[in-house]
Amino acid sequence: MENTGTTEVSDHKEIRQEDRSISDETDTGRDQPHGVELTPRSDMAKQDANSDKTVVSEPELTESTSGDSAGERREAVSMTRKRPESKAPTQPVGTEQQLLGEAEKESSSQAAGSWGYWGNWGKSLLSTATATVASVGHGISQAIEKAETSLGIPSPTEVSAEVKLFDGKGAEFDEAESSPKAQSESSSPTSGAFGMFSTITSAVQSTGITVLSGGLDALEFIGKKTMDVLAEGDPGFKKTKGLMNRNTTLSQALREAKEREELLVADQVSEDTEKKAHYGMLFDEFQGLSHLEALEILSNESEGKVKSVLHALSGQDVENLKEELEAIKEAFSLVEFDEEEEEEDNGGDGSEFVKELCELLSELNIATTSDKLSKARKNAHDRITEASNVLSAQPEESEPEKGQGPRDEAKSGDLNKVQKYSVENIHTSAIQSLAELTARSIEQFHKVAELILHSQDPDVEALDRAKTLSKVTVVLCKEVASLSKQFTSCLTALGATEKVEVLNPLITGVFLEASNSATYIQDAFQLLVPVLQVSQIQSRSNTTTR
Amino acid sequence: MLSPGCFKMLHGPSARMATAPYNYSYIFKYIIIGDMGVGKSCLLHQFTEKKFMADCPHTIGVEFGTRIIEVSGQKIKLQIWDTAGQERFRAVTRSYYRGAAGALMVYDITRRSTYNHLSSWLTDARNLTNPNTVIILIGNKADLEAQRDVTYEEAKQFAEENGLLFLEASAKTGENVEDAFLEAAKKIYQNIQDGSLDLNAAESGVQHKPSAPQGGRLTSEPQPQRDGCGC
After folding, report:
1. Separation of alpha carbons A521 and A481, rounded Å
2. For chain A, what are the domain ranges?
3. Is the ipTM, as predicted for this complex, more than 0.85?
4. What is the tens place of the pLDDT at every residue in A167-218?
5. Contact (CB, 8 A) for A239 and A17
6. What is the extent of the structural domain holding B31?
């Protein structure tokens, strides 16, 4: 809440409620109102695992960043919150052990606080899933981040025990986790929570590509569960629903995440490769934040207009208009992902995506093109091709080195370095591609908003446009999923000989950012609701004046 | 209080926590305004890419550019909103003025009409930004001396009468482009230094990234209300 300033008290009342309801359910929600600390921290976890050099400096870094902010938060917490169970996280002290201990503790309290609510996840949440994307996204990030922080920690025995758990229960994570039996199998709810994630990733690692989609499903499923958790605290999403109440703005949250990344990067004095893998900064470099911010402005202003028009009308007019506006809003909640379809391979090079997108955009009948999105998709494709080339070149390189005898060990060490470099390169490419595609998607929505708002007499009904845009959103999100699958396939294939601690965070990172990307896209899409409502009002008044 | 819900991103700088040094200390929001075809996007492109864009497409709504500059040893990130000059987008682009710390108001020295429209642009800029917003008048296409339609002197006088900074520049040759953005930044920075620009004011258009944690009070202040309505 500290980031929204003091001038907008009335507007924030609702949001605070929302925050609070989240924090009641997921313990960490209180400490991270926007969930923005996650990206950098997960990156840290990655680096911990990846680079021996930075291991020493990382914990200190963490202490100085999270320590300060945690300190401030704690101050706030102690002033306002009196619930005994809501203990503030312990001040991290400078050792890695303690740092990890904190992460574990946070995770455990989260697991204990929220796991119980996840029993009824099976109900369809898709219809509500889009309404609260922003908060859900952060929820997911929190969950994943915890998981990832923990990824480096579990002892081999723990991991193998959890693999057993996984083997036994298959993909039924929920059963495994919520049944008392599973709880007792793992030593505590904490390791149970860890188990789920490390299970996913280790399974992904050991069984390869086929399980990857399962991993992605698991992410989706975590998202759905988070929805449920939210729903518990906010039945019917009354507080969360509607743009008017959740304007704390995604762009702001993203901006902060990016700033934290910048901060990390600045402190590291690190090489370029490190910098490139920071999603938030890349997203900003592609002007994703700016477009999102501008889109938010248009959305907010449109919303104000809609409200004032509704105010000015009376009687039957209000009812009629309300109905029309509601219909438009409903078109925005129709976004559902056909899982079957998602499985089908769309050729990999994205040509299908571009074609589909072009068709949909032309249906809108506004002067917007998919050029930039197509470019982004092409760049992603190029990166994947490049990665595949590295992949196919790999065995040839390693073959002749086999016969080197005594120097074998040193050689394999070298080879490891090469591989590690490649794995990290692919990860970087993946993050870059996701950030670019997402930024361009948001730019696309922003342009759509501008063009819809300026066209005074639309030839296409606002409702039809809403439906088309809903399809656009599905296409974009599918493409994000498809991209992340392709990249993680590369990662798994190339990193087959890689240590779990190295590969897992990279794969999780790609899935995490893919999940975030889809969230941002859907959130930007929701910002178009009032824009199309204004357009509806405009075309209405045009017809009545004639 | 100005209407809530808008422009949360670029104001309330001290409300935003920063705990360690960034690679820049401030973010300034700029807008570029002026008639269609005066070269707004080209000025931006020249500033961010150091290249001249010969056939620049019409801007739809707004486009963006960023660059980090240095003023008095302080690194400042400029977030530049390059607005569409077309009249049909005027309603949309007006939405983007608020929260700008600096405005570049551009005309074309070879087209008098673009100069004549300045008062309308200036009215918008004055009405839609805060009183401290630094406005710099730019006469673009200064390389086309032979086709000059607006003299330097009259533009200079117009600028002085209205309290604007003024430069003639050329996006094509790059002449004075750098200075145009820098002069405005210097002025904004000076306003911050002498206290006339209140960073805590809403929509100052400036975000400060303090190197030491501050504003702890601000974080705790809104929280009690949270308790009041949460349960």
Report:
1. 12
2. 210-275, 279-337+349-390+420-544
3. no
4. 444 444 444 444 444 444 444 444 334 444 444 444 444 434 334 444 555 5
5. yes
6. 26-208
